[in-house]
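step=encode ok
step=design start
structure_in=
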């Protein structure tokens, strides 16, 4: 059947035919009117030997295959298969949101195909697509929990049912697979579900809809970008409108906990469930990228301030309270009790990624980096098969925080999709040039927005040493701006272009924008300042008052008992005046620069002292303390560790 051309426009199909799926990045912002920066495709970036290549390789070669095995062993794939079988066997297993775990794994696998083509993996994804879509009902509805005797409960439990959360991840998997292979089958399955929603749900007299766990909002924005169909963005706007508060009889505590159900611009602070709130804010930032809505824009910037100034751990972790997995009050940042779910750190990075592309401001990239190199990186062991759900800033050896499997296994595939596509977070383009956000051995093979092919090659010893060389190779000489991020921790950075030192200030936490006629083979040399330093918290963080942490480059460090035999890490203090030494890389944690600093230990141990007394207790026994990067805690097995230590004579 031939559709009239106007109908094609209305359905978005004509717009769909225009962009090449190969050119769409993690986010496809080329046509987003408010986007200052545009992400590059995952396939445009290859890591070479270095920190992130190691992590990406282990993700693709070890982590993804072992997790698929576990998803199979725990019945998560069978939950779909059984629905296509007459006997409906085996019985469904796992909590009601497990569909999303498989979708997220598929998203990771889909992105990985752009890094490392793998016909066998692609065939697995095709088979899984068939398995999933065989469970889709003719209406478009697709969920393995609300079936059979639970089918009457569909949409009756929108606060906790996760039906839309699962759909969001289905769409993201479908979009990733489409952008990696050009295959639309999974994406079309997701679209059928969205079309079902558009038919039956929406403002009265249609049925009310609520994202009890925000996530669909950002997926709908990306679906709009992928198809050009405005109705998908309008559905996100409806979900943000909160007009269903009365119809769904939401309680005040639901509005707080879910970060959903009330008009988004009424939000003044981050509260409630950390992942829900950050996904909602990320989706709202996507909405701003598409519409420029002023009230939404003010709100996301206000929320960012609340996060950055009052509610973010030094590791980029988010979520202070284990009960409810929620944000705490301002400055409520306990260390041992920190909840800091891996997914929350990832959600924080996604929120900052949107703000970076909206504004081009380095402070957002800075928080992406803080999370990525610390509270996200810690979520997966170097072996690639152990994961953290919580990433506290201190833990005893008895706290088994790295595990191969969780009944709620949201974090492992979330980490995988992040690492599989990681290179695409490192670069962006804009109308005036190209942006480098993070530094590792990597090659960008892409093009300027003028259309001129461009290759950027980064050779560096980052993140362990500061020397970095970037070879700039446009296909032909062309004037454009190279935006180089100068991280907030590099207090003194030198920059040379073709051997000549760049004059003028090179300020931390800004992008150095260098506009010139670039010729193939031009070289930029940067030397970042990786001096190890003590970090102090705002004194309103009671838990960290009088304490310091150590930072070197992007890494926050921790004191782990494995490196400090005979010392209780919870009974040690840093000596304020002592130098901090960088130790040569060790075998474990692999390749990491460890730090050594003078400290003091309590003697006799504090456990032998009374709980209260009239004299302060000060540590007196000099000790040498050895620190490892925080991300590597428990990597060599269970151990006591802590990020923050009392700091004596530190100017308190
Ligand atoms: Zn999680």
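sequence_out=
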């Amino acid at each position: 059947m031939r559709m009239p051309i106007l109908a094609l426009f209305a359905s978005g199909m004509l717009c769909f035919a225009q962009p090449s799926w190969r050119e769409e990045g993690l986010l496809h912002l080329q046509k987003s009117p408010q986007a200052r920066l545009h992400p590059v495709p995952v396939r445009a970036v290859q890591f070479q030997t270095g920190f992130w290549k190691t992590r990406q390789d282990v993700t693709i070669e070890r982590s993804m295959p072992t997790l698929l095995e576990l998803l199979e062993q725990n019945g998560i794939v069978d939950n779909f298969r059984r629905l296509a079988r007459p006997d409906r066997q085996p019985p469904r297993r796992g909590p009601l949101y497990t569909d999303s775990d498989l979708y997220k794994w598929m998203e990771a696998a889909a992105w990985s195909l752009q890094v490392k083509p793998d016909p066998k993996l692609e065939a697995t994804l095709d088979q899984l697509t068939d398995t999933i879509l065989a469970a889709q009902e003719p209406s478009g509805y697709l969920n393995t929990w609300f079936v059979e005797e639970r089918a009457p409960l569909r949409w009756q439990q929108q606060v906790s049912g996760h039906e839309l959360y699962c759909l969001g991840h289905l769409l993201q998997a479908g979009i990733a697979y489409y952008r990696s292979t050009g295959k639309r089958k999974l994406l079309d399955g997701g679209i059928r579900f969205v079309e079902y929603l558009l038919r039956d749900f929406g403002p009265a007299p249609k049925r009310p809809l609520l994202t009890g766990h925000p996530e669909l909002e950002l997926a709908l924005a990306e679906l709009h970008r992928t198809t050009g169909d405005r109705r998908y963005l309008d559905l996100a706007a409806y979900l943000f409108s909160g007009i269903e508060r009365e119809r769904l009889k939401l309680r005040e505590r639901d509005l707080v906990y879910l970060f959903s159900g009330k008009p988004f611009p009424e939000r003044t602070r981050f509260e409630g469930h950390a992942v829900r709130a950050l996904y909602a804010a990320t989706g709202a930032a996507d909405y701003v990228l598409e519409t420029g809505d002023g009230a939404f824009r003010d709100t996301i910037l206000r929320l960012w301030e609340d996060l950055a100034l009052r509610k973010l751990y030094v590791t980029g972790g988010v979520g202070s309270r284990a009960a409810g997995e929620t944000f705490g009050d301002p400055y409520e940042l306990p260390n041992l009790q920190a909840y800091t779910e891996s997914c929350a750190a990832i959600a924080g990075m996604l929120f900052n990624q949107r703000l970076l592309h909206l504004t081009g401001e380095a402070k957002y990239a800075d928080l992406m980096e803080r999370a990525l190199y610390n509270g996200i990186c810690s979520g997966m062991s170097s072996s690639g098969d152990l994961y953290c759900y919580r990433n506290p800033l201190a833990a005893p050896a008895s706290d088994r925080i790295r595990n191969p499997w969780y009944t709620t296994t949201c974090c492992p595939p979330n980490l995988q999709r992040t690492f599989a596509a990681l290179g695409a977070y490192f670069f962006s383009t804009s109308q005036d040039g190209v942006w480098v956000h993070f530094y590792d051995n990597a090659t960008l093979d892409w093009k300027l927005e003028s259309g001129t092919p461009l290759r950027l090659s980064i050779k560096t010893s980052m993140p362990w040493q500061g020397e970095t060389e970037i070879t700039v190779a446009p296909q032909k000489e062309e004037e454009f701006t190279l935006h180089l991020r100068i991280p907030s921790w590099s207090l003194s950075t030198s920059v040379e272009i073709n051997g000549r030192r760049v004059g003028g200030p090179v300020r931390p936490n800004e992008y150095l924008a260098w506009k010139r006629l670039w010729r193939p083979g031009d070289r930029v040399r940067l030397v970042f300042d990786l001096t190890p330093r003590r970090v102090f918290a705002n004194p309103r963080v009671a838990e960290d008052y009088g304490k310091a942490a150590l930072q070197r480059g992007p890494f926050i460090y921790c004191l782990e008992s494995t490196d400090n035999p005979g010392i209780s890490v919870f009974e040690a203090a840093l000596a304020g005046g002592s130098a901090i030494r960088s130790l040569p890389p060790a075998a474990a944690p692999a390749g990491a620069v460890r730090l050594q600093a003078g400290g003091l230990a309590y003697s006799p141990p504090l456990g032998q002292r009374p709980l209260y007394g009239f004299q302060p207790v000060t540590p007196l026994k000099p000790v040498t303390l050895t620190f490892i990067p925080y991300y590597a805690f428990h990597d060599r097995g269970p151990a006591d560790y802590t990020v923050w230590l009392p700091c004596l004579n530190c100017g308190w």
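step=design ok
step=annotate ok -> The CA atoms of residues 177 and 183 lie 7 Å apart.
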